[in-house]
Amino acid sequence: MDRLEKIVLVFSAGLLGIFFLALLAAARLQAIDVPPCLPPEVKPFSAGRVDTLPDGTRQLFYVARMWRFEPEIVEVPVGKPVDIFLSAGDVTHGFYLSWTNTNLMAIPGAVNAYTVKIEKPGIYPIICHEYCGSAHQNMVAYILAK
Amino acid sequence: MTGPMNPTKNTFSVAPLSRVLMIIEVVLPIALLVLGIYHGFLQALYRAGVIQSSSFMGLGYYQGLTLHGVVNAIVLTTFFGVALGNGIMQYYLRKPLIPWVHAASTGLMVGGTLIAAVPMLVGLADVLYTFYPPLRAHPAFYIGATLLVVGSWVAFFGWLPLLQRWIRENPGMPLPLAVLGMLITFLIWFLCTIPLAIEVLFMLIPWSLGWIDTINIPLARTLFWFFGHPLVYFWLLPAYVIYYVMLPKVAGGKLYSPYAARLAFLLFLVLSIPVGLHHQYTEPGFDRVWKALHALLTFGVAIPSFMTAFTVSASLEYAGVQRGGRGLFGWIGKLPWLDANRPLFAYSIAGLLIFVFGGITGLVNASYNMNQTIHNTGFISGHFHMTVGGPVFLIILGMSLELFSQLTGKPIRGRGWNVAVPYLWMLGLFIFSPAMMYGGLLGQPRRTNMGLSYLDPSSPHFRADWVPTALLTGIGAAIMTLAFVIYLGVWIATIAGAVRHSVGELSFPTAEYVHGDAPTTSVVARLRPWLVIALLLILVSYWVPLQQAFRASEGAAPYAPDNPVPLIQVEK
């Protein structure tokens, strides 16, 4: 192979390697990660609810259904970690908590999870971003951060 | 037998039956594209809030979105891959296609397309081109799509005996580069359509016919994306074949090095399949380590594209210097940008310029945790319109016209207009895609009729901050649509024109090499070791994720897209 092509090959592989290490560093050091795999004992649930753990951590259990989220409006404290669990009640849905990294798929048969810390008070829309039928565009819920 | 060959003109005469079949393979998808592009434009208007309705002139938003995806991304690309492969195999192997195989392949593809079109057109398949269960389409949708894919397999199988004969007749010769490229394109296609076939034949079709009540959704999704990412290389590699083999010649130069070209194609064979989980980063059920492995391999599959960027640029520089370009950048101005007699250059270069950004944004999507910001937002649609809607689409447009002209003997008419098409498309796209991506960063979802909620000022969900990007998307889409209308005009003028040159004579511009080809003993002259590595990587990357997908706790009953009550009540 031509010398210049070898240089390009090594350079692009090296650059991508650096990018990849940066992603892993963000996952490890800043805890910006993709959703985890919950143990198989965690079964899908069919009713939305809000729990508060003894240490005060808020846990939100969302069920996504054609074409609403349950619970629809939830208050959470600013600056505290909030655990989100997500089940699909019928078809596949999306769950995008605006202005955060909370971006999840709601898949029938499995439970998704993510932890978010909202730093600024405000109204945060949760938008269904996976096509789920004819009224998909109306599927919105809200989190009030106080 | 060697096919009829005119040594003075370096052309290949296509047999009459194959000629007719190839014309169908080229013309049918372009005709269907009218519908696909029409709804692409309408979609941008709905999303901009210009149309605030669930349907327009009898075509629903999600029905049109299904047509837009299926026609543009499945029908057009598959037909073109097969038509180009048929042309390249005949031309470079100097052998006619086996007539009955060719007829069976085209028949299956056309029949499958028509069967799938009926439920889409009457609104019984509003499930988009990813057809994620448990939304259910009419069985004819899945059956038609299956026949289309099987038809493309038949075309591929029909090339293998020709290839075998060529290898026997040319011992010690490396495969012609174009043939290697198309062979790898269809090897990837064949391998990745196996999981799709499993999903469709054993899950979706029996379930849509009511023979089984429920199916496993995580498994169906994993099988789909097992297919869904290599699919994009099936779209892209025919364009790469043209970039490597034809573009340097069209530009007036030579290919910088065939060695790197061969290596790039082989790396695609190895790395384009074990990457599907990067579409599923935000899904439950897979251990993070498997998502990270697929991220790493997706970065790996970017390497042959970096190499291509270098080799094609170097070839173009060589061409520009041959044409009298001086200095570091003087060669750029000397390239035949607006040469009406070399439309393939304009289509190629516009596609390449777009793909610079398509590739980089693709790396963003592949970037594991970074994907949390953009998954399923407009960023994704902005990205892939710069890949499948960029180089892939423009090469298909440019080359379809060229193939039609050679097969019918009718010269392209409206040649000045034809050269304007790719640049106008690029201009529109460079407004459309950034607007769509910026909107995505603001949180706009993809695949959503925003005119009914987020872009409707009277809705409680109205988002004033989304208005500027949504409007810009509409403006970009309007320019792209105009480019396509001009392109259609060129087609109509060409079809209406008279036969001026010999009919059915294939003649592909073929570049010579600056640096010599790889020796036949070289590892890039062999296919089998790479195929073995590809299969091993698939096994390693999918063994555990498939098991994890299998353990979904319950099956899902089917739903119609317009009704929250399941079509079958299942006892829990």
Q: What is the element layout, followed by pairings?
A:
The complex is a heterodimer of chains A (146) and B (572).
Chain A: H1 3-29, E1 49-52, E2 58-65, E3 68-70, E4 73-76, E5 81-88, E6 93-97, E7 103-106, E8 112-117, E9 122-127, E10 140-145
Parallel strand pairs in A: 2-5, 4-10
Antiparallel strand pairs in A: 1-2, 2-3, 5-8, 6-7, 6-9, 9-10
Chain B: E1 5-6, E2 11-13, H1 16-47, E3 55-56, E4 59-60, H2 61-93, H3 99-122, H4 139-169, H5 177-208, H6 217-250, H7 258-271, H8 288-322, H9 330-334, H10 343-366, H11 371-374, H12 378-384, H13 388-408, H14 415-441, H15 467-496, E5 505-506, H16 528-550
Helix pairs in contact in B: 1-2, 1-3, 1-13, 1-15, 2-3, 2-4, 2-5, 2-13, 3-4, 4-5, 5-6, 5-7, 6-8, 6-13, 6-16, 7-8, 7-16, 8-10, 10-13, 10-14, 12-14, 14-15
* Main beta sheet strand tally, sense and closure of chain B: 3 strands, antiparallel
Q: How many helices of chain B does DSSP assign?
A: 16
The number of distinct β-strands of chain A equals: 10
N-C termini distance of chain A: 62 Å
| Largest beta-sheet details of chain A | 5 strands, mixed
**Intertermini distance of chain B:** 64 Å
Question: pLDDT below 50 for ≥5 consecutive residues: which ranges of chain A?
Answer: none
Q: How much of the residues of chain B is beta strand, in percent?
A: under 5%
Number of distinct beta strands of chain B: 5
Which range best describes the helical content of chain A: under 10%, 10-25%, 25-40%, 40-55%, 55-70% or over 70%? 10-25%
Number of spatially distinct domains of chain A? 2
CATH architecture term of the domain at 336-522 in chain B: Up-down Bundle
CATH topology of the domain at 336-522 in chain B: Cytochrome C Oxidase, Chain A
